[in-house]
Every structure is written in C-alpha cells, then in structure tokens.
Amino acid sequence: MKLKNLRLLNFKNHLDSSWEFNDRVNCFVGDNGSGKTNILDAIYYLSLTKSYFNSSDSTSINFNSEYFTIKGSFIRENSFSNIVCNVKDGFPKSVKNNDKKYKRFSDHIGNYPVVFVSPTDTSLITEHSDSRRKYLDSGISQFNNFYLRTLISYNKTIKQRNELLKHFLSSNTFDEITLTTYNELLMNYGYIIFTERKKYLEKFVPVFQKYYTEISSGKEKVDIEYKSQLNENDYLTQLNNSLKQDKISCRTSVGIHKDDLLFTLKGSSVKKYSSQGQQKSFLISLKLAQFDFLKEELGLKPILLLDDIFDKLDDKRVESLISLVKRGTFNQVFITDTSKARSEKILKKTSSEYSIFNIQN
Ligand SMILES: Nc1ncnc2c1ncn2[C@@H]1O[C@H](COP(=O)(O)OP(=O)(O)OP(=O)(O)O)[C@@H](O)[C@H]1O
Ligand SMILES: [Mg+2]
Question: I need a labelling partner for 10 at 20 to 30 A (CA). Which of 51, 157, 264, 332 fits?
Fold first, then answer.
C-alpha cells in the first residue's frame, strides 16, 4: 500500500500545494514553520480521518478560509483509491473514497494504516493518561474494527450518562431506569474494550521489548503494565458505589475511559527515573512495535511518518532506520528535516529510492 500523491487546499498554512510521491522514501525539507509537519498530519488525516495533533477539525482550516480539503490517492493491491477529506465550518466532516461518501468513518479506518512518530510523543511519557489511551486506541483500531465501533459507542454512552447526571442535578430529579440502561450499556461495551486492550497488550509487549533491546542495545528490562479499574472489582458495582460522587460532579468516574499504561524500566517508572536517551529509545520502540504489530495483523505494511527524526535519534541510528526501507522492513516512508544537506547525505548513503521536496511557507 502506497500513497501516490497528495493535494492540500487551505489545510493549515498550505493554500494549494500538491506532490507526487516516491514509492519508498519521501523527505520534506524546509525552515522551521514552513509546514512540513502539517503535510504529515494531512497524510494522517487521510488514513484516520482526524488530525494527529488537534482534536478539533476546524483548527486545521487555514486562518483565512472556511474550509479545507485533503486529496490523496492510495494504491493497494493494484487498485487506486482517491480519498477526499473535506472540513467546512458549520458542516459535518465528509470523507469520500472514489467519490463514495462514508457513512461511518470507522469503515475507512484501518484500510490505509499509518504510524506517526513525532517529537510530541514525549507526552506519552510525561502527560496525563489520555495520550496513552489515544496511542493504545490508534494501535488497536487500525486492525480491529469491532473494537473501534465499540469504543465509539462507549464514548457516546458516557456522554449521555453525564448529560443525564447534569439533568438530575439541575432539575433535582432522579430516574433510576434510564440510569440503569446506561450503566448496563457501559458494562457491556466496557468489558469488550477491557478484554481487547488486555489481549492486545499481551501480544504487543514482547514485540515492544524486542525493539527496545535492538535500539538501545541495552540489557535493561522494559515493561508496560495495563492499569484499569475493571481489573479491581465488578464494574457495575463500582458504578453504583460511585453514584453519589458522580451525581455531584456530573461525571462518570469509573470505567475504561480512566485506563492507563504504566511504562517501566528495570521496574521503575520511566517518567520518574529514566534518562532522556532511554525515554527516546522507549518512545521510538513503542512506535516501531506498533508498526510491526499492524503489519502482522493486517498483512500490510503501514506508511511510516517520521517527523523530525533527527530530534529523536543520532545520524547513525537514522541511517540504520532508513536502511530498513531498503531491506524491506518498511515500505513507504515520509520524513521531515530542517537540513536538506543532512537528509540528502543520509539518503544517498542508504541509497534507497528517494525524493526530496523543498517546502517554503
Ligand atoms: N489553521 C492554520 N492556518 C494557517 N496557518 C497555520 C494553521 N495552523 C498552523 N499554521 C501554521 O503552520 C506553521 C507550522 O507548520 P509546521 O508545524 O508544519 O512547520 P514545520 O515545517 O514542521 O516546522 P518545524 O521545522 O519547526 O517543525 C506555523 O507557521 C503555523 O502558523
Ligand atoms: Mg515540524
């Protein structure tokens, strides 16, 4: 599976830009702020129907416009798919595949898988649990459509339950039947997601550990522990026990939307005790393992988006990473760099097919 071309209209700072891509390595070079990362984000959009960075679509519309369009053609098993993603202020987002509009975006996700490696990934270690859940979900959703649909239903039910709690508070009423309906829905969806996350991590962690050992050439043991309230006690009982508190806060305080991953190195928290180099190796291993896992599950190599890769790895490690494209480990890769000379030197040396694109603001 490859992305053959891309056109951006009013997408962030790109008013009307287009590119034809190489089947192997594509490198965007340009000054800070020229829009290199934005191009990778647009490719991510085509694959996952949303931005890697912004939760709101309208943030990606150019400041002077009311809409953006991303167009790209993927080739997969000799057939072309022209994907068009349209976002217009005040209208629902639309995603089309060969002019056919998707009713559910979940039908699209996973067909053209990508893995994004970004400097902002440090948030996986330093920030709150939602960035780790997002990472987990993007890994599972791209090969497990049932998981994705269940997750969407779960999130919708949480919203509805919170609205109901708000209604109880504002109207000083209580409706046990509706609440029980939501609780039961949450229990059904919640256990499915819990089980799928557990199953995924059981298989994923050994792959991740293998990558960490390769990248760090270290002997330290790394691990990922799945933390979920559903591990502790029956979910329905917990929902009932927390009702008093939930009615005050108008929020649902237990469930898989509170799940977290604990990253450890030699048994200690990576966030608290690991060096910056160890953290970088940890993060890149998380992403390469995700790539490997998706490849196995889908029987298809995802597109790899490597943003500011030199920020993460020294030149030597980038070289060995790029040479993996030549050896067939990776398929199509998109990278960004501020230095054309540095990229060119490395790409020439690793001598895979490549194209370099100059990006100017
Ligand atoms: N909605 C928007 N409308 C117009 N411009 C935007 C919008 N969102 C972001 N930008 C602009 O995009 C630019 C940043 O682009 P991007 O992050 O892709 O740069 P970059 O080339 O990756 O830079 P760096 O080398 O520093 O990583 C900024 O100048 C920012 O103002
Ligand atoms: Mg950038």
Answer: 332
